Q: What sequence folds into this?
């Protein structure tokens, strides 16, 4: 049992598991993006893909045994800590994703108001 | 059973869904083989490690904050600009006049139900706590997990709750615009002061005194908490404006 836990703690195994999980989420989002016709569902799939990438970045930035890159009571030096750069980048990516999602949803609402439909096929057919 | 057999195969299996599933599965397998090969010998020394060893010079206990505001501060400025553009776009979309036919229809169907007593009392209790919590998160960005983005969004959420509980509550767009403009130009101004002063001579350079001895105290890390507070005000005002636009449109 302990050997199994040690094996799971190895960086390559841990990163591999994170990779499988977040890529599965990403592909689910891709499927929704290509296969769904409702605009809100498409936007949701986009958000899901984005979250999968965020998850991947955060997961790969750390290995077992590393702490969050923040000094607190017990910690006095910046050693043995997770990489802060991906965390900082993902922090900004989350905010941008929120803003882009809000913009997309408001475009979808506006389109629904004008045409009383939320179907992307009708949007592709619209000429005027 | 007999009925099922009469339906031809191409109608029972939807070809498009099948093809999409196959495509997705193929992409998953491709990504996995590419990236799992990489994962076997993952790079051990990264830029982040170099920044971590240098991080004590910023006197910020939170290394993520010193990356966001100091080392990668220019990215943060661009990101705040993108947020501003998105908020402006949403305002533009919802400020366009509605077609007349739909206006009367919207008025007749969607008079929102008045908020119930639970909502009103709950928001009255929660609102000050949420605002205080947001301010705390913003001001302690250089000491603990948190910062301008997170705290700004918490504050904006407090105002969203107010909007839901009180139909007459309105965030003034002009005042929000002023807040946004002042905090945004304050950010750029602090960056430019860092550029002009000869002691730092870099954009967003930390020109205020930031002794390493004060690491972990509220007043430490020089210019970092100031910039993060400005970012917090800007993000809060922008997200609040988005909420207000969406509520007016509903």
A:
């Amino acid at each position: 049992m302990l050997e199994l836990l040690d094996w799971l703690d190895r960086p390559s195994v841990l990163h591999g598991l994170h990779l499988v999980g977040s890529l599965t989420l990403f592909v689910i989002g891709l499927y929704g993006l290509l296969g769904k016709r409702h605009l809100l569902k498409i936007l949701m799939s986009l958000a899901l893909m984005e979250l999968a990438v965020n998850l991947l970045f955060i997961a790969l930035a750390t290995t077992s045994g590393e702490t969050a890159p923040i000094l607190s009571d017990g910690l006095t030096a910046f050693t043995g800590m997770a990489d802060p750069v991906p965390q900082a980048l993902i922090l900004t990516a989350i905010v941008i994703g929120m803003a882009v999602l809000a913009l997309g949803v408001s475009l979808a609402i506006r389109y629904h108001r004008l045409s009383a439909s939320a179907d992307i096929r009708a949007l592709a057919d619209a000429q005027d | 059973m007999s009925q099922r057999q009469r339906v031809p195969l191409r109608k029972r299996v939807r070809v498009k869904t099948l093809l999409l599933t196959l495509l997705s599965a193929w992409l998953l397998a491709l990504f996995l083989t590419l990236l799992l090969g990489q994962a076997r010998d993952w790079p051990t020394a990264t830029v982040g490690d170099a920044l971590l060893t240098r991080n004590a010079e910023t006197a910020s206990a939170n290394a993520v904050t010193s990356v966001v505001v100091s080392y990668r501060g220019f990215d943060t400025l661009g990101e705040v600009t993108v947020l501003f553009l998105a908020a402006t776009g949403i305002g533009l979309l919802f400020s366009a006049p509605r077609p007349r036919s739909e206006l009367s229809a919207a008025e007749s169907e969607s008079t929102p139900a008045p908020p119930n007593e639970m909502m009103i009392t709950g928001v009255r209790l929660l609102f000050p706590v949420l605002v205080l919590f947001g301010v705390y998160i913003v001001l302690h960005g250089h000491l603990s997990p948190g910062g301008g983005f997170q705290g700004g969004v918490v504050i904006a959420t407090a105002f969203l709750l107010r909007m839901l509980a009180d139909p007459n509550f309105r965030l003034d767009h002009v005042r929000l615009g002023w807040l946004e403009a002042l905090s945004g130009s304050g950010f750029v101004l602090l960056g430019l002061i860092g550029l002009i002063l000869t002691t730092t001579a870099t954009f967003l350079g930390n020109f205020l005194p930031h002794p390493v001895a004060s690491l972990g105290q509220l007043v430490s890390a020089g210019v970092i908490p100031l910039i993060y507070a400005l970012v917090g005000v800007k993000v809060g005002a922008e997200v609040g404006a988005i909420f207000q636009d969406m509520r007016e449109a509903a």
Summary: Residues 24 and 63 of chain B are 38 Å apart (CA to CA). Chain B has two domains: 3-39, 61-105+115-249. The radius of gyration of chain B is 26 Å. The mean pLDDT of chain B is 80.
